[in-house]
Amino acid sequence: EVQTAILTTLDASGTIDDSRKLTVGTTSLGSPEGQAVVKAALDSLLSKEMVEYTQITNNLWVLTKEGNEIADTGSHEYRVWAALPEAGQPGLSVKDLTAALGADTVKVGQGRAFKSKWIAKDATGGFVKAATEPVDATAGALREIKSTGLTSGGEAELKELQKRKLVQTRKLIHYSIKKGPQFATEVKTLETDLTVEMLASGSWENAEFKQYNFAAKGEPTDGGALHPLLKVREEFRQIFFDMGFTEMPANRFVETAFWNFDAMFVPQQHPARELQDTFYLKSPASAPEPPADYYERVRKTHEVGGYGSIGYRAPFSREESGKLLLRTHTTAVSTAMLYELANQPGGFKPAKLFSIDRVFRNEATDATHLAEFHQVEGVVADYDITLGHLIGFMEEFFGRMGNKTLRFKPAYNPYTEPSMEIFSWHEGLGKWIEIGNSGVFRPEMLEPMGLPKGVRVLGWGFSLERPTMIKYKIQDIRTLVGHKTDLGAVKTRPAVRFEKDD
Ligand code: PHE
Questions:
Q1: The complex's ipTM?
Q2: Structure pTM?
Q3: Number of C-beta neighbours around residue 112 at 10 A
Q4: Number of helical H runs and strand E runs in the chain
Q5: Among 338, 435, 438, which residue has the most ligand 1 atoms within 8 Å of its CB, making it the best to mutate?
Q6: Does domain 229-252+328-492 have CATH number 3.30.930.10?
């Protein structure tokens, strides 16, 4: 209907200079809502090139709620004046006025009325009228604006009223319309596609087709996106590669207790191995056996010692070794790699290895803990290296992430001696937080593998989640991993750049 009204009016008078004058039947389209309907109709006609239009914006002054009240009942100062007795009569106190007019009106009105000498104080301190019939200019201006949208007081007065929050501007939009190149009084539906039916019936010959809009923006293409953890992982990988490390194949989540614990000289009675800390698998029931001679050396080291150690002197069970579990650390992978290094053709060669992958622990979940997380793991195996090299590595590695303040604290791991926890100063939290665990692997772990005596192996593990949460300001780890993950955020989170020295 609106489209027809536009087209017939254009047909009759050539142009429409003010779309607010349009009517449909007897309904005027002058209101802001009417103009929104006109715009929708115009855009549709514009897409068919039947009309062209320009938008005209006017600012109109309207009264606020308080402005309306003043226009109706007078300004605060006028109301104060009106409520007071004539001079000579007993005056009213502020308390009396407040009871009659309300605190707001008295607060603003009393001062203004006094300043304009509309009211005065009598001998007892009460207020009485001082002027006979004051001109309430504020209410007058507001009434004028209310009926005409303008005031004879001009711009300065409007600004003043706006400052007092009595008036505000409203944008009013209307359109000026003229005929377009495809103008017609009737809207044709244009075909958007050439169909088999049109070809078969021959109707294509008389059909009119909609123009292609080559400038249209396409739908945003939907592609995959790296998870924030993978973005941070990628930065870590680059730092490792830059420092000459090789990546270990860590894509196997299930290990035997042998590789996850025994081979690392973790006693079979260690509490970390219990059900409440480690996830064990029911099936499959068994895994490939480790090399028999190696298994035997590991068993002996646990039970009776060797390589300068007295061992744990506790029973060692093959059944315990064969249990399948979800690896509790990626150090299980490092261990298998170290065994490979010791037994590769040509013998041991120094190596720097890393992996960043998932580990599992039977833990209650909360805002900062999940039963699965990622470890950033590394080992450096070489002749005659020391704890000093490990500290040097940490400073270099974290320095490349822009993290220059580290502290080291002695710790305990069954498989390293000495062991160190690594702490970093967290600017946001204003305290030292633990970022990783590390150490020099024990001979009880390395020598049964067949590594030469002079070889020292440094190792460490950090979490990937912690730097990711800091980097992306994520408070709850459960919004990063798991069913509460915000997929929209996964797509839009930027790539990571650690601040490096230039
Ligand atoms: N496996 C340790 C952990 O899970 C990390 C570590 C790796 C410590 C290697 C020392 C040596 O916390």
A1: 0.97
A2: 0.60
A3: 17
A4: 18, 16
A5: 438
A6: yes
